[in-house]
Amino acid sequence: MKPVYDLEKLKYGTDAGTYSRAVGLYKKGKVTKVECVAGSYTAIVLGTEPYRVSVSGRSFKQGHCACYLGQQGTLCKHMIALALHAVREGKPLAMETTKTPGEAECSMRAGQLNDMELQKAKLEITNAMKYIKPYRGPSKTWFANQDSLCEGCARLYDIVHGLPVSKQTSDLLINLLLRLDKKLCTGGVDDSNGTVGGFMTEVVALLEKYAKIDPACINSFKKLTEIDHTCFGWEADLVRLFDEQPR
Question: By residue range, what is the domain housing residue 46?
Answer without folding.
Answer: 7-98
